[in-house]
Amino acid sequence: MNRLEDIIADAQARLDAAVADRHAAMHSPVVGTPDGEMRIMVLRAAAPGLNALRFHTDARSPKVATIARYGRASVLAHDPAARVQLRLAGLARIEQHGALADAAWDAAAVFSRRCYLATHGPGAALAEPGSALPADLLGRRPTHEETEAARDVFAVLVVEPDTLDWLRLDAQGGVRARFERGEQGWVGNWVAP
Q: pLDDT, tens digit, for every residue of 86-132?
């Protein structure tokens, strides 16, 4: 790739593929918050122009309070076969109520909704190892109606990237480009890998 606009198109294509195919390399990127915590999350949507990335989360998760406090997050995605790494960072917000969260909940598969039926939120102490799902839900798919009780703890994490770092490593030393979002869109330059 010899043009900066090709790099943006490549990043968009890789993230679009990650949303569409759960086997795609970048389907589950690492999401970081300003407190230094990182976690792997499933990428649910990548808006055109890389304007927003969407993830689903449990509203009881500690990251929800961290994002509410700092309003930023970073995303690290890697394709080992292509040797391409994407680092994005930007404004972040949690939407637990409203049209976006409702649409995401309505579109979520029943088995995905099952995760939000846990009796304890992520990171809560448990007396013994386990998933925190109610015993009657272990090993079975809940009904659509059963999952409705979990809607109150379902939330959407939206990251609106304002920086993008694209890196491809290869035997010739690699190629790297760094971008910032300006008033006219992404503005980038080539940097040393």
A: 999 999 999 999 999 999 999 999 989 999 999 999 999 999 998 89
User: Which domains occur in the chain, in start order?
Assistant: 4-159+174-191 (2.30.110.10)
Task: Find out whether 115 and 65 touch, Cβ atoms under 8 Å.
Answer: no
User: What's the rounded Cα separation, in Å, for the pair 45 and 19?
Assistant: 6
Contacts of 51 (CB under 8 A, 6+ apart): 160, 161
**Comparing C-alpha atoms, which of 59, 69, 27 is closest to residue 44?**
27
Q: Is 168 helix (H, G, I), strand (E, B) or coil?
A: strand
119: tokens are: 């009796």
Can you give the pTM of this predicted structure? 0.94
What CA–CA distance (Å, rounded) separates 60 from 46? Answer: 24
| Amino acid at the residue 164 | L
> Which residue, chain included where needed, has tokens 């009881």?
60
